[in-house]
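Quick start: read one record
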Amino acid sequence: MKQFLFAILLVGWSVSSRAGIADTKPPNIIFIIGDDISAEDIGCYGNTAIRTPNIDQLAREGVKFTNFYLTSSSCSPSRTSILTGRYPHNTGAAELHTPLPEHLDYFPELLQKSGYYTALLGKWHEGLTTRRAYDMLSTGPKENGAGGEEQWVDALKSRPKDKPFFFWLAPFDAHRDWSADQFRKPHDPKSEVIIPPTLLDTKETRVDLASYYNEISRIDYYLGELQAELTRQGIADNTILIFMADNGRPFPGSKTRVYDTGMRSPFVVKWPKGITQSGSVCESLVSSIDLAPTLLQLASVPASRTVQGVSFAKLLNNPQADFRTYIFSEHNWHDYSAYERAVRTKDFLYLINKRPNYTNEGPIDANQSPSAYALRAAQSTGALSPIQNDVFLSPRPTEEFFDCRTDIIQEKNLSGNASYRKIVEKLRIILKKWQDQTGDTVPDTLTPDWYDRDTGKPLPAKGTRGEMPGQRMNADKINHKGPF
């Protein structure tokens, strides 16, 4: 009898040991960050015209987040924020094309120090010091192709096979100028685009949007190739695969805006081994600064003390759990001078503008686009709706408030509505508290416009910088998380 019991215990120990080994094997991580893509331009987020079958499948087999927000709708500030898990003004690189300082920790570097093979392929403009976070760095279209995805499968094949890996895959798609109009099956401008309410339904706009769609579909195609290779190598089950974007679409009314059109990102994650409820939807508020501590936790790597975000790992298998109450975002210089701050809750959006005399047509690539030209032509005749005309508004309100339950596109500013007085005051206090706790400042001298807002031509001030937001308070040394 003792021998029988011993045999049972031995078998049980053997099975649990094998399970324990399997359970503790670090997951591989593939992080795909599209360039200039709005959530509403992905099939699984409701766009019935665009072709994104592989991203849609990713959502069906994983978790789709519907309230995932960026800290900045501007390329490099958004990416540096993700890389460090910090707000833009806390990175020392709050403005476009400003490099991260050496003293901050980058989460791929922490993975690397814990035994991960790390690689970045595609767009790289977070600063030279971030080179240290990657074992392999392959940048530019010469190596990665026009869209930035052609080397993905080869990189997966050639990686060291004795280490877990982290890939930061940063395609140039869907950033202007367009280069995918001949890729596979292009979208028909007449029938396969959906015109956002911020744009006019013209031939020029439709062609512009179709080209944008084509670049998103190119990412989707290579995502499918990548997944097929993961399956061929037998590592798909323990690979965390993420798709998101760095900011909103490169059109007027989206990119650089602190509205949802600029800050809300698609975010889908698949991990067969780690996600038990495939096809689930998470409506919890999540900030992009929360990504770094989440991936570090999933890899069993301690987060740096400099991280301001909070891990949302629990949401992967409990998507209905409460998480954030507040999301904070900022708009700093991106081709043009600006200073806006916003706080988003599930139901409301509140923002302040410290440079209200400036218009906000978006960055130069957006405001010099065919879609922008169509808006300008109609604006001169008074043919625009209020939300289409908003980009030309000057002066702008110093304070805006939207009830997002009834105003999804944030069209009606209710900051002066007496019915919302208490919630406006509450969010005004919360936003100020966040600024104070994280060391945010309003510089006396902001970086000036580098280009003419109408013509796009360079101005004499091009190349000059003002004071960085947060610089006066040494905000890059402040680790306070702010209200949560």
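The mean pLDDT is 94.
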